[in-house]
Amino acid sequence: MHFSIFDTIVVIVYLIGIGGIGIYQARKVHGSGDFFAGGRKFNKFLMIMHNLGTGTHADDPVVVAGASYQRGFSGIWYTFVYLFITPFYWIIAPYFRRSRFLTTSDFFEARFGERLGLLYAIMSIVIFTINMGTMLKGSGTIVQAVTQGAVPEWVAVVGMAVVFISYGTAGGLVATVITESIQGLLIVVMSLLLVPFGLYKIGGFSGLHQLLDADKFNLSGPQEFSILWIIAAMIANLVGIVAQPHVMEICSTGKTEWEGRIGFTYGAFIKRFCSLGWMMTGVIVLAMVGKGLIDPLPARELAFGTAIRNLLPVGFIGLMFASILAAQMAALSAFMVAASALFSRNIYRKWLHPQATDAQVVKTARYSGLVIVATGTLFAFIVPGVADALIYFWTVATFLGTFVWAGVIWRKTNEIGAWLSFFTMILIWTLVGPIGIKFHQIFPDVAWLGIYGTKDAFPMLLISYLPAGIIMLIAGSLLGKPRDKKILDDFYQLLKTPVGQEQKLIDAGINIVYAGQSEGHRWELNHPRLVNWLGFLVALIVTLGFFGILFILAALGS
Predict the structure, then answer these.
(1) pTM score, whole prediction
(2) Fewer CB within 10 Å, N- or C-terminus of the chain?
(3) Does pLDDT of 424 surpass 70?
């Protein structure tokens, strides 16, 4: 099936409509608080859609469908590694909201000092660059597969980079979240649309079992998805999730703490549901190869695009492309806003122009966002594949996540420990990880350079640097000078004080970066422990339910 005029009309109408809606929201931006945090006014639905839109990208179906095409059901672990850490989102989210910070760099500055705040801002911009490049790479891979090379990957990458910029720079987070309320629904459509068409082609679940080897229905694999690989990926993402720079806006822009909990946790669960569709798409494409309906793919990451081209009728291809654009625009605009906040607030105003007005900060944010997007576009042309880029993202986030956790849990954590931990981890990762492969090409006699640089070796890479970083963090914190007691007291008091009780902080002389709408939820204020643990338990039950669905899908038709 080819991309028709009707499909083109569907995509053009979508782009014009969503762009107009986003730009219209710019009238609601009256300052940096609105631009970066939406005034902290979003309701539960918008927060769920914000997390779904920001956390779901077109590279996700590319990598999951591709891995499932090659490995079978175990390919789902590229997103299901987050499944068993999702209940912790319920516990984590309120602390971001209570901090009253606009960026996670504000957290580092308050907890560790200005230098660590600067480090985080720089590293986070690097993380955003990697993430944007990963998403753009995924878009290009899909377009190339659907059009069979008629539209080159570079055209798709550059085009995608241009599409979302207009409303993101104009309306900031307000425009981003409002458009995500529409785009989130299209993301679900994108994730599930191919499955019924594919099952019809291969004869349903029974046909799937007849066409595929039994090992394709296993939930783990010998290498890339071994039990050790899955555990390592879960640990890496639990450590790194708190340092991912967009999590601050996902958790802290709702009306109350309750909105942050609901959005962060259940927006993620909707993505877990979508990943079931991506996995099914990958194994369906493999079954189509087995049935002789299509030729074997030259690269596994072409599976999702191949499914679009071979399964969808006229009009539906346009709807799928609009959905892919929705996934990318939702995430890219959110990332651009968060990255521009880090540069304009934590680098420009803090270090380059301390007297900058609020209007100058917003203006700088808009321009810096464009530069960051351009850098991400360059990364998309360098990285060899989407799965490789995802491993980069997982590992880099753990460098900073290690001392985010330590900074909250252990009062003695200090700046010296954080610096030692960071440099130890990044040195080991650089030498034995993916960058080390490049060094090995220059110094072929040094056998250990890049030894854990492939995605199959991810568990050993994590083991090589994370424990060393934790040891150096502890040693440096015990030997170094502790943080000033008053500063620590103020920091922990922020995290202990529920939203809606800002007057207590004001009376104690504690600086509030940005309160926005300060409204307390009655359950959070009156029953905090019950809300914490009952909510965690419910989320854990939902998690086990997803795992049960995966077993059922593997057994259907056998």
Answers:
(1) 0.86
(2) C
(3) yes
